[in-house]
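Exercise 3.2. Students should predict the tertiary structure of the chain below and write it as structure tokens, then compare their answer with the key that follows.

Predict this chain's 3D structure.
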Amino acid sequence: MLVPEDEIARRREALAAGGGFPVPASQSPWQEIFRERVEPFSRGMTLRGSECYRDIAARHVPRDNH
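Answer key:
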């Protein structure tokens, strides 16, 4: 990078002091639901609470869904 170390340090401090990256307000109800229910990309973007339904076919009789 062609950014001086003191500039990187200043930006890092500003980011930490501000609580992280700014997030714009949701522009639709679907975006709001997505943000509430989906884990961040760094955690696999899975639905929060989905671990409760892991291996569900082994625990219950599968439903006909056709």
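Discussion points: The chain has a mean pLDDT of 88. Residues 5-17 form the longest helix (13 residues).
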